[in-house]
Amino acid sequence: MNGPRGIPFVVSAPSGTGKTTVCRAVVERDGQVEFSISHTTRPRRQGEEDGVHYYFVSAEAFAETVAAGGFVEHAEYAGNQYGTSWASIDGPLAAGRDLLLEVEVQGARQLRSRRDDARLVFLLPPSWEALESRLRGRGTDSEDAIGKRLETAHVELAAVHQFDYAIVNEDAAEATDALLAIIHAERSGSTGEVRERFDRARVVEGLKGILPIPGRS
After folding, report:
1. For residue 67, is it within any domain?
2. Which DSSP category does 45 fall into?
3. Collapsing DSSP states into helix, strand and coil, what is residue 100?
4. 135 in helix, strand or coil?
5. Which residue, among 19, 200, 5, 6, has the nearest Cα to 103 in the 3D structure?
6. CA–CA dist 125, 128 (Å, integer)
């Protein structure tokens, strides 16, 4: 197919950071970006639609796809399986459309190793208290589940050093603008300004003492 291929943008964050809200706002505002829909064994939440928010599948069906090599990345998170199929990304990218993939940190690492064209963006909460408040405010998880998500977040925050960009999601509209700026810069090939503005080391330094992010190993 003629024309440039699209770019896969991989967005990860601890649960409760607001990555879904930001990603869907980006897709609404930029007609050249398509949202990649993941498969999951997680139960459907109120208001979610199959094939819109996720492809909701059984654990057995998920395992069969893994065995068949159908996922470019897959990971377990909070007791549920999540995965991105090769089929869901190859078509849009070949057609020249940029793709937004909202995946867990484990999945982002797999994509980094399997696709050298991927750009990785990490969303950070403005504080630990804000993250905890957002998780409780969703009203979708038990106290035990929230505790497990917070434990996982401690580990995930260290992964920011492996990403190309970091954005603090204090305000969803501003975080959306930031992600759009990165996408537009990568698309045009002029990334100097955004690489400096959203440099992970600089962003992490600004959150020192606010978030429990360990230094780069």
Report:
1. no
2. P
3. strand
4. helix
5. 19
6. 7
38-48, pLDDT tens digit by residue?
999 999 988 99
Residue 212, C-beta contacts closer than 8 angstroms, at least 6 positions apart: 128, 154, 157
What pLDDT score was predicted for residue 1? 46
CATH of the domain at 16: 3.40.50.300
In angstroms, the Cα distances linking 76 to 40, 60, 70, 82, 83 are 9, 14, 16, 6, 9
pLDDT in tens, 89-107: 988 999 999 999 999 898 8
CB-based contacts of 165, cutoff 8 Å, min separation 6: 119, 120, 121, 122, 182, 194, 195, 198, 199, 200
CA distances from 208 to 1, 26, 42, 72, 122 (A): 47, 28, 34, 34, 16
Q: Is residue 158, in this structure, part of any structural domain at all? A: yes
- Could you tell me if 105 and 156 are in contact, meaning their C-beta atoms sit under 8 angstroms apart? yes
What lies within 8 Å, CB to CB, of 187 at 6+ separation is 7, 32, 98
The b-or-e profile of 34-64 (16+ CB within 10 A means b, else e) is bbbbbbbbbeeeeeeeeeebbbbbeeeebee
Are 160 and 200 in contact, with CB atoms under 8 Å apart? yes
Residue 120: domain span: 8-36+98-206
pTM over 0.85: yes
Element housing 8 (H / E) = strand 8-12
Is residue 42 domain-resident?
no
Instruction: Determine the Cα–Cα distance for residues 153 and 60; give it in Å rounded to an integer.
Output: 28
